[in-house]
Amino acid sequence: MHAMIEISGLGKSFGSLEVLRGVDVRVQRGEVVCVIGPSGSGKSTLLRCVNLLEQPTSGQVSVDGVELTDPDADIDAARRHIGMVFQGFNLFTHLDVLDNLAVAQRKVLRRQRADAERIARENLGRVGLAEKAEAMPAQLSGGQQQRVALARALSLDPNVMQFDEPTSALDPERVGDVLGVMRGLADEGMTMLVVTHEMQFAREVADRVLFMDGGGIVEQGPPSEVIGSPKEERTRAFLARVLDPTRSHA
Predict the structure, then answer these.
(1) What pTM did the predictor assign?
(2) Roughly how many angstroms between the first and final C-alpha of the chain, as a whole number?
(3) Within 10 Å of residue 130's Cβ, how many Cβ atoms?
(4) Rounded mean pLDDT for each run of 10 residues along the chain, 250 residues in total
């Protein structure tokens, strides 16, 4: 059976700047893969190449058996099955929460308004915000806005969820709310590719951790190995900087 995400020989350059260099990744159905690494290592570009928000310079990307890098691929159809949650919330500020979730369903999936609103309310319930359906985005905290963005992505029935540093713009006390929803998705068997600096989340939830640096994957494996006992010096140096020193040996 094919992997849910298959990336082979992926390269991406912006002019003379080579951001990704021959990256190979396979994410199995139901697997949670966390991508860690320093700023500028290519993590976000990797995610954006998976759904072709960035056009790869070289290599192949397939999602659920469909090669998105095939010139004849129906990119819009494939993207419907790939949910994406960014650092910024990207909500429509002039629409209330319910409409933020419903409008994409109606435009992308051609759902009737009643169906779209029913599914929107179900997903707001999943992220613990059922009572905020009529609120405007400006009335919500950052953590609530990010959970609305997550519910919006879930309302499109994705097979894969990608997260690009979903907690980096949040106040520390709001981070746990978003990570809690993501833990729930992992428990439900959602295939997830997560760029994160939340090492404890990666430790607890990831099936596999990829450490990226210099546009490539330096090390990968179970979190107990990559975070707990890294083999590569570059991985060790990165973790020494980001982990609490009292826990860096754990």
Answers:
(1) 0.92
(2) 36
(3) 13
(4) 91 95 96 96 95 94 93 88 89 96 92 96 95 96 94 94 92 88 94 95 95 96 96 95 59
